[in-house]
Amino acid sequence: MTAIEFESQISGLQKTLKKFTYRFTRNADESQDLIQDTLLKALLYRKNFKEDTNLKGWLFTIMKNTFINNYRKSKVAKTSVDTTKELYYLNVADNHTFNRPEKTLELKEAWRNINSVKEDLQKPFKLHITGYKYHEISEHLNIPIGTVKNRIFQARKEIQKKILEG
Fold first, then answer.
1. pLDDT at 154
2. Which of 24, 151, 157, 159 has a CA positioned 20 to 30 A from the CA of residue 79?
């Protein structure tokens, strides 16, 4: 494939790429930047493209990887270092803790609501909120995965009802 054919095919996919960028950015300017970065990388690394492969898939992969890399860079850029002499910023009180009395009461109330749910709904729900996957709960309790999902859903409904009543 010649460079002109390659560029022609890429330019024909710009509308498709634009739709795909909204999955990531939800912003017109960021979307346009991501498309430009993707196209630039595609042109720079054209020699890595194999003619037998899917061009659109190749571009989508470049776009996804570019977005992820940019996201990671922005997270690192937002990290701040405390350069004050007495480390003032490191010694600022943490207001986002669960050690406050009202948060302790909320947590106790939540567990009271969870523990008041019927036993057959309670076990799968507790396993789910502690991080187990549906298939792991299914294997552990020796019940079908559909039953696990249904019991977790029913437990949520009961807990929500108790919260609204109380």
1. 93
2. 24
